[in-house]
Design brief:
By secondary structure, the chain is an alpha/beta fold. Strands 6-5-9-1-10-11-4-12 form an eight-stranded mixed sheet, with helices on both faces. The protein binds (2R)-2,3-dihydroxypropyl phosphate and manganese (II) ion (MN).
Length: 715
């Protein structure tokens, strides 16, 4: 038996089948232990088992056309290695994003890929060696002639037969898949479906073709398509609540982006201590309008999707990041430009990571941001930073020199980073006694969230002493989940739930993130139960500032309006309303979490809602992928010209403006008798006093990449 096997492996075909078998086994290992493919019936199970075969046989059999002995063997191993790279990259990606890598993720990530290595390494584990060990061993056996180098080339006819049978096999696979799930490829299903039915190779190729089609669509877009979008957004528009309209008129706006911050952290206690005592205080304060049913709506673009929704009230893309793919050359009508043109706001972003991450350096210019204080403006050396950039306490503290020089009123955004996966912190930064679960991300999450909370408390105390608090509106929001669905079952007991009956409904509930509008000095605030999401922030904020949003193309609606749309669309087309939570077509009661056996009446209502969700996402995609806003200039809007902006020498520019305005300057510095306000800042961050070193822990090495060609050519 064993000798027979050896004899077989010693032939070219036998060697081929050995590699196919091992690759198939690895793929199944990933399917079963990493990807939650959700097999629901025997046919699906069968298809999942066989789907790697057709495409691998096809690709591996390409080596059959090679006659030279060594070349044949090395090419075969090379194809195997390429397939393994694709598989393994997806394994790593899936651990963080609970999703598969699309072609635009692969290409569009070029600008951020290095930034992801910190997390990627943390996501790797020793048993990942299984994905590579076969190639290493076989290569060794081959090199040391423990495997025969079969000199007999494979006949052309045989090679051709293999390729054709593989193609036919794939056709059969596809037909069976379509019988189980009609229109698998024509309707946009979850990516998981395509992998489950057709495998990773087929998914990647399919996605690449779709990507190419989008590029094509964009080139052929017509103005009439913009009219279709506008018809929808203007009939969907919700007029402002008269009681709220303009209540923050003329105030500075400070947006604080709470990285990876989920709503369940609010009021959460660990070992008897509040995780985020300061944010809890804000949440319950009567100067805060806090929303407890507010959801993140991001797709693969994560932070950048959240930013896009907040700045433009249009959705991110169905795959990849809108910032990375379209940010370099799309037309935006975004918050900083609108506020500048309508109410003379200046604008700035403070972020302790490098500017090229998520293609921000290019996207912000198209959005009309005047200043971008990225990592290059801060000392991020030594222990002052973690993988994604400057630690939050230092970001807030060190931003003061730039903030105080900005003309008021201003619209500024702070993008924090410390509370980011893998949620690690130097021991000098925390004494918070956290949980003791088997998952280090969960344990770390409470510590980094606690740290973020402290950093905001310190910043608030400065704002107060410097006199900024009373004339500012502070908008705080969580951008997306920090703990991914794969971690939820370990998290469940900490939330008073049981891991065993955890459902998709429960995971959907956890997509709530904080949204708070804090107006110090006012007393009308309360905890609102209105359902809404990130898409609704811009019209809400504009109306509070007394700027009508009616003329703009926006998909969200004012959260305070009686006409506010309470259907919250997720990027994968699932949705939540106060009544129904609809996930993958399954209907749950939003209050009880019970799955609803749909009768005709419920089904009609849900179908109608689903249709609207689909329409809204489709229109937003069409608007963005075809860059339709280039066809529409709202009344009084001056199209943003990215070349007006350059983010170098920000401080010098601020000072120049301040000087030229003389006593008309409204910067805090000028108002403070031409004196810095940094004496008002107090931090307990131990690093604040540490000396500058040469090393930095930020994972991107090319910070001032202003060439946007690679980002735009990916689309
Ligand atoms: C990086 C930071 C993280 O600059 O904003 O982005 P994310 O990984 O959360 O999308
Ligand atoms: Mn984020």
């Amino acid at each position: 038996m064993f000798t027979k096997f050896r004899q077989y492996v010693n032939t070219r075909i036998g060697f081929f089948w050995l590699l196919i078998f091992l690759f198939w086994a690895k793929t199944l290992l990933a399917y079963l232990t990493e990807f939650s493919l959700g097999v629901a019936d025997p046919l699906q199970a069968f298809l999942m088992l066989v789907n790697p075969i057709a495409t691998t046989v096809f690709f591996f059999s390409l080596a059959f056309y090679i006659r030279k002995t060594n070349v044949y063997y090395y090419i075969l191993l090379f194809i195997d290695a390429l397939e393994t790279v694709l598989l393994y990259a997806n394994v790593i990606y899936h651990r963080e994003f609970t999703d598969f890598m699309t072609v635009s993720t692969i290409t569009g990530y070029s600008k951020v890929s290095q930034g992801l290595t910190g997390s990627s390494l943390a996501l790797a584990s020793w048993y990942d060696l299984f994905y590579w060990i076969d190639i290493i061993v076989i290569l060794g056996l081959f090199i040391f002639h423990r495997i025969n180098h079969d000199e007999r080339p494979i006949k052309k006819r045989t090679a051709f037969a293999y390729s054709s049978v593989a193609i036919a096999g794939f056709g059969l696979n596809l037909a069976l898949a379509e019988s189980n799930r009609p229109q698998l490829l024509t309707r946009t299903f979850d990516r998981t479906y395509i992998v489950k039915y057709l495998g990773l190779d087929a998914f990647t190729i399919y996605d690449g073709i779709k990507d190419e089609q989008t590029n094509h669509q964009r080139a052929s877009a017509k103005k009439s398509e913009l009219d279709t979008v506008r018809d929808y957004t203007s009939s969907h528009y919700a007029s402002p609540n008269a009681k709220m309209y303009g209540i923050a008129k003329g105030k500075n706006v400070i947006v604080i982006h709470l990285e990876s911050f989920q709503q369940f952290l609010i009021d959460k206690k660990v070992n008897g201590k509040e995780v985020t005592p300061f944010l809890n205080k804000l949440y319950h304060s009567n100067s805060t309008y806090a929303f407890k049913n507010f959801f993140h709506q991001v797709g693969q673009g994560k932070t950048s999707d959240a930013e896009n929704m907040l700045e433009t009230s249009t959705y991110g893309l169905s795959t990849g990041s809108l910032f990375s793919q379209l940010g370099s050359d799309n037309t935006f009508q975004a918050a900083p430009a609108i506020l500048n043109q309508r109410a003379n706001y200046s604008s700035a972003v403070f972020h302790g990571n490098v500017a090229s991450f998520w293609n921000r350096n290019n996207t912000y210019k198209n959005m009309g941001y005047q200043y971008f204080f990225d990592a290059s403006y801060f000392d991020t050396t030594g222990d002052k930073s973690t993988g994604y950039g400057l630690k939050d306490k230092l970001l807030f503290k060190d931003s003061v020199q730039y903030l105080e020089r900005l003309q008021q009123p201003f619209y500024v955004k702070y993008i924090t980073v410390t509370n980011h996966f893998p949620f690690t912190l130097d021991s000098e930064d925390t004494d918070f006694k956290t949980t003791d679960t088997s998952d280090s991300a969960i344990n770390g999450y409470f510590q980094t969230a606690h740290y973020l909370d402290q950093s905001i408390e310190e910043f608030y105390s400065y704002l107060d002493k410097a006199g900024l608090l009373k004339n500012s509106m502070i908008v705080l929001y969580g951008d997306h989940y920090g703990l991914s669905n794969s971690e939820n079952s370990t998290l469940a007991p900490l939330l008073g739930k049981s891991s065993s009956d955890w459902t998709s409904y429960d995971s959907a509930q956890l997509q709530r993130v904080p949204f708070m509008i804090n107006m110090p000095g006012t007393t009308g605030g309360k905890i609102e139960s209105t359902y809404g999401g990130e898409i609704d922030v811009l019209p809400t904020v504009l109306h509070l500032l007394g700027v009508s949003s009616k003329r703009y193309v926006q998909f969200g609606t004012d959260l305070f309006s009686s006409q506010h749309d309470t259907t919250v669309a997720f990027r994968n087309r699932d949705f939540v309303t106060p009544k129904y939570t609809v996930l993958n077509g399954n209907i749950y009661d939003s209050k009880t979490g019970e799955q609803i056996k749909s009768d005709e009446k419920v089904q009609t209502t849900v179908d109608k809602l689903q249709k609207k969700v689909n329409k809204e996402l489709n229109l937003s995609d069409s608007l963005n992928t075809k860059n339709l806003l280039r066809f529409y200039t709202p009344k009084g809007f001056k199209k943003v010209d990215a070349s007006d902006y350059n983010y170098a020498d920000g401080l010098e520019k601020e000072i120049q403006i301040q000087n030229s305005l003389k006593n008309k300057s409204t910067s805090l510095y000028s108002k403070n008798g031409n004196k810095s306000t940094d004496e008002f800042y107090e931090t307990d961050a131990p690093e604040a006093s540490h000396k500058k070193t040469d090393s930095t822990r930020i994972k991107i090495t090319n910070p001032d990449d202003t060439d946007n060609s690679s980002a735009s050519s990916s689309k």
